[in-house]
């Protein structure tokens, strides 16, 4: 397949300053008339052909300046329209008519129908499935859109910008006209037409402009959209206060649809959402759902400035909008909730998704240089590592200069399509800093490793810290350059406070940050009166793997006393991880797992430490996941041994701390009415972690059954169901709870997804058969991405013992299912296939089974570009 290369970028010969679209909407046969004002760029000869992108289109008619074009003067195929020569005038008008069948569009890209509602998804290259166009992000156009549809089935007609006209047509049809004054790339175009309910509100911007807000959902679900509306208004205010960014249209609309390939889409003035990230109430949504809704509503809204007003020059620059917008939504959530808890959750996500990507065959830089299919680059690296890079710029510059750099970026590039270099230059200019070495974070793939060790010399009153960096090779980047890594740190004294020092040499040490730039630094801190315990990479200031030589006593000391809450969590997490790795090795060697006494006793201490918030305590008590331990072990992985080690530790802590945990679990059941705020959610999270331990400690389903039966909110109920299904899969109580849940939520697909997920993640070799069986359930459908992700996606990505079943059946099942999905929805299939990416880290037999399953996919006939790209890179 064709490879797109960053170095081949060149501006287009033609621009399209104005786009006028008329849609005659019909679910089986929609007519699209596009009137494009085309402009030849200065210096481009008139005999340069105009080449427009298409994807699966049929051209019905073509006019240039209102006149038909001779057949010999153009060529129209499904994927492009070539106008061999254009009129001599610099500007001319092109009128194109195409037809599409939205109800047959199962790829969910371009114009499609979801639950009877017409909607669009144009990022990255979906607009070319609607009409021929210069479908690239650096071609910005002002859109006027006229929608015509049947009034009864589609009373609501929405597009980008502001509404300008509407009225009746013949045969029960009607129309609406929308005008978006802000020039935008085609990937931000959207329309929605259907019959939906709504919640309405208003927002007055800082400068006093009134904005009409609406969130559209299926009739009857309006009450479940009020939390999303609240999150939207909080996001709008926050962006004004933190970044000085105001909204810029008269209306802001959000529409929730039930068939959607990703989380949501930031189309200008008309965000389209996966309904999973809009709909919530206490009975049907967990605290995690509420937090996700808040974050994704904010994320899409923040794109209005970082993505829409300033967009990407080309798709290699995707992190320019995505990494930056993730950083902004992380900061928003940190301000709305507990900053430390949010940071811990971010780091868990980064390690769970981005680290394996960066350490495997699909590794790529935050700003890639090559792609075969852009849809496969909406990755954890572009999004999450991209956000970490922005966070590091803030660490390097400090809050004020970071804000000045952002202000300059908004002022200088408003209305433009720009690059990462343009972005970084703004920060260099406001600070005078040279960010050339730092910019490698954008250009070089791979997770840097840091090793560190400290020595104290009492006589010289010196503490010496040796730090070394290395970046492992990644596909097509064997040799790596040295990175600029900002490590926040503290030298913690015996009283738990940070020690001061008289100076340091061997590296730049400023404002609590060590700037690692060389392969090795030997840093001497002077004037240190007693041995400190070093706390390194505080707040996870750099996305690296760190092996810091330290005794278990020192780690426990930091877990108890570090003044950085993230690092306290990290110290304990490292102790758990080290103990679990050792236990895994013992189990593989045929021995019993054994754990240090202090590690079994400390959880009771931290669980009842009221100086810490409940949400934080819940995070501290949550053991590393099986995938975390697998990643740390790194090679010849046996998921069954890891599972046994974690179960053993959970059980040991659960029985050792049973008294404290039992009392606390009881006390946290306060009977308060549900509110989704962070403090109440924290109490529920802590209660659920305790339930997990208590059940493991007692070895009986009693606690979980009681919590399930008395739960008055979904957070408590889903957690109890998970404990039952995962710890007691064969008990009658579990069968009964599953049946009750299914019965109660039969008519609510988003809630039934939780039921699918809990069963898909039930550990053990019979998971494959269970998942196969559930595919026949009446509520399951391979055509709906949420259903597929809930059942197949969670099985493959979050059920280590099930998916990696020793006989390879999990891999064969995934290969066969991916091929079935691929026929309709290649994007979804490609995302599922990513579950194979760490196959080379497995023990030999599993590796062989995984390779065979991957080969089955790659040998299939007529593979989509999406799936072929993932499978070939995974096998390479
Ligand atoms: N910018 C949006 C990306 C997106 C997308 C990409 C490919 C295919 C379907 C898609 N739906 C949404 C989402 C975001 O990051 O905000
Ligand atoms: Zn985004």
In short:
The chain is 41% helix and 21% strand. With 876 residues, it is an alpha+beta fold.
Please explain how this structure is put together.
GO terms for molecular function: alanyl aminopeptidase activity. InterPro entries: Aminopeptidase_N-like_N, Aminopeptidase_N-like_N_sf, PepN_Ig-like_sf, Peptidase_M1, Peptidase_M1_dom, Peptidase_M1_pepN, Peptidase_M1_pepN_C, Peptidase_M1_pepN_C_sf. Its cofactor is Zn(2+). Keywords: Aminopeptidase, Hydrolase, Metal-binding, Metalloprotease, Protease, Zinc. Belongs to the peptidase M1 family. By secondary structure, the chain is an alpha+beta fold. Among the domains are: 133 residues, Neutral Protease Domain 2 (Neutral Protease, domain 2), CATH 1.10.390.10; 83 residues, Sandwich (Immunoglobulin-like), CATH 2.60.40.1840; 156 residues, Zincin-like fold, CATH 1.25.50.10; 131 residues, Alpha Horseshoe (Zincin-like fold), CATH 1.25.50. It is 41% helix and 21% strand. Strands 6-5-9-3-2-12-15-14 form an eight-stranded mixed beta sheet, with no helix packed on it. It has a five-stranded mixed beta sheet with strand order 17-18-19-21-20, covered by helices on one side. A hairpin with a 5-residue loop joins β17 and β18. α2 crosses α3 and α16 packs parallel to α18. The radius of gyration is 28 Å and the shape is globular. The structure holds (3S)-3-amino-4-(1H-indol-3-yl)butanoic acid and zinc ion (ZN). The site of zinc ion (ZN) has 4 residues, from α3. The site of zinc ion has 4 residues, from α3.
């Amino acid at each position: 397949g064709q490879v797109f290369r960053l170095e081949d970028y060149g501006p287009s010969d033609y621009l399209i300053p104005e786009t006028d679209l008329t849609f005659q909407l019909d679910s089986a046969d929609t007519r699209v008339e596009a009137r494009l004002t085309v402009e030849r760029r200065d210096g481009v000869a008139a005999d340069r052909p105009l080449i427009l992108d298409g994807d699966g289109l049929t051209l019905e008619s073509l006019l240039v300046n209102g006149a038909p074009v001779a057949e010999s003067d153009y060529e129209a195929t499904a994927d492009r329209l070539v106008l061999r020569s254009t009129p001599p005038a610099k500007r001319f008008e092109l009128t194109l008519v195409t037809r599409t069948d939205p109800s047959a569009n199962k790829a969910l890209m371009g114009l499609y129908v979801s639950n009877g509602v017409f909607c669009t998804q144009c990022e990255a290259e979906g607009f070319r499935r609607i009409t021929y166009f210069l479908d690239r992000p650096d071609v910005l156009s002002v859109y006027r859109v006229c929608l015509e549809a049947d009034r009864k089935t589609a009373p609501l007609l929405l597009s980008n910008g502001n509404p300008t006209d509407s009225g009746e047509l013949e045969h029960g049809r009607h129309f609406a006209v929308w005008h978006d004054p802000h020039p935008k790339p085609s990937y931000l175009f959207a329309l929605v037409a259907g019959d939906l309910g709504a919640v309405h509100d208003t927002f007055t911007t800082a400068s006093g402009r009134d904005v009409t807000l609406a969130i559209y959902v299926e009739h009857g679900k309006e009450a479940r959209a009020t939390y999303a509306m609240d999150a939207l208004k909080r996001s709008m205010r926050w962006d004004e206060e933190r970044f000085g960014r105001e909204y810029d249209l008269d209306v802001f609309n959000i529409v929730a649809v039930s068939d959607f390939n990703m989380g949501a889409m930031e189309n200008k003035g008309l965000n389209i959402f996966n309904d999973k990230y809009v709909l919530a109430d206490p009975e049907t949504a967990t605290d995690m759902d509420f937090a996700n809704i808040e974050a994704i509503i904010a994320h899409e809204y923040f794109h209005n400035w970082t993505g829409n007003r300033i967009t990407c020059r080309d798709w290699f620059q995707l992190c320019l909008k995505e990494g930056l917008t993730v950083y902004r939504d992380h900061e928003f959530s940190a301000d709305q909730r507990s900053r430390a808890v949010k940071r811990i959750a971010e780091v868990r996500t980064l390690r769970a998704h981005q680290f394996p990507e960066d350490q495997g065959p699909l590794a790529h830089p935050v700003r890639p240089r090559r792609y075969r299919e852009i849809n496969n680059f909406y990755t954890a690296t572009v999004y999450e590592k991209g956000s970490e890079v922005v966070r590091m710029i803030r660490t390097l510059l400090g809050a004020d200069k970071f804000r000045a750099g952002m202000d300059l970026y908004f002022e200088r590039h408003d209305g433009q399509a720009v690059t990462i270099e343009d972005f970084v230059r703004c920060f260099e200019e406001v600070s005078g800093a040279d960010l050339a070495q730092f910019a490698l974070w954008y250009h070089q793939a791979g997770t840097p490793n840091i090793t560190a060790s400290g020595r104290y010399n009492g006589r010289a009153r010196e503490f010496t810290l040796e730090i070394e960096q290395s970046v492992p090779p990644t596909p097509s980047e064997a040799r790596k350059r040295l990175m600029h890594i900002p490590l926040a740190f503290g030298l913690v004294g015996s009283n738990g406070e940070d020690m001061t020092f008289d100076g340091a040499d061997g590296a730049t040490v400023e404002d609590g940050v060590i700037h690692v730039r060389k392969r090795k630094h030997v840093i001497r801190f002077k004037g240190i009166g007693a041995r400190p315990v070093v706390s390194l990479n505080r707040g996870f200031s750099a996305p690296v793997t760190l092996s810091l030589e330290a005794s278990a006593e020192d780690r426990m000391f930091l877990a108890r006393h570090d003044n950085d809450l993230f690092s306290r969590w990290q110290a304990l997490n490292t102790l758990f991880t080290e103990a679990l790795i050792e236990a895994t090795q013992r189990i593989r060697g045929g021995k019993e797992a054994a754990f240090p006494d202090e590690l079994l006793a400390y959880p009771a201490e931290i669980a009842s430490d009221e100086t810490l918030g409940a949400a934080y305590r819940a995070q501290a008590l949550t053991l590393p996941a099986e995938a975390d331990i697998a990643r740390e072990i790194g090679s010849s992985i046996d998921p069954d041994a890891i599972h046994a080690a974690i179960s053993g530790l959970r059980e040991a802590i659960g029985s050792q701390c049973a008294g404290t945990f039992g009392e606390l679990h009881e006390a946290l059941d306060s009977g308060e009415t549900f509110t989704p705020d962070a403090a109440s959610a924290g109490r529920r999270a802590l209660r659920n972690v305790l339930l997990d331990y208590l059940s493991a400690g007692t070895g009986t389903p009693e606690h979980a059954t009681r919590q399930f039966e008395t739960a008055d909110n979904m957070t408590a109920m889903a957690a109890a169901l998970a404990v039952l299904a995962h710890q007691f899969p064969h008990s009658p109580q579990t069968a009964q709870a599953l049946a009750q849940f299914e019965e109660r939520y039969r008519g609510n697909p988003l809630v039934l997804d939780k039921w699918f997920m809990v069963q898909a993640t039930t550990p053990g070799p019979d998971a494959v058969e269970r998942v196969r069986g559930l595919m026949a359930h009446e509520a399951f459908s391979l055509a709906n991405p949420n259903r597929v992700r809930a059942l197949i996606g969670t099985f493959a990505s979050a059920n280590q013992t099930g998916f990696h079943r020793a006989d390879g059946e999990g891999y064969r099942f995934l290969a066969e299912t991916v091929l079935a999905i691929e026929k309709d929805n290649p994007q979804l299939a490609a995302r599922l296939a990513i579950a194979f990416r760490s196959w080379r880290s497995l023990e030999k037999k599993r590796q062989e089974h995984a390779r065979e399953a991957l080969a089955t996919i790659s040998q299939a006939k007529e593979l989509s570009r999406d799936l072929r790209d993932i499978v070939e890179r995974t096998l390479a």
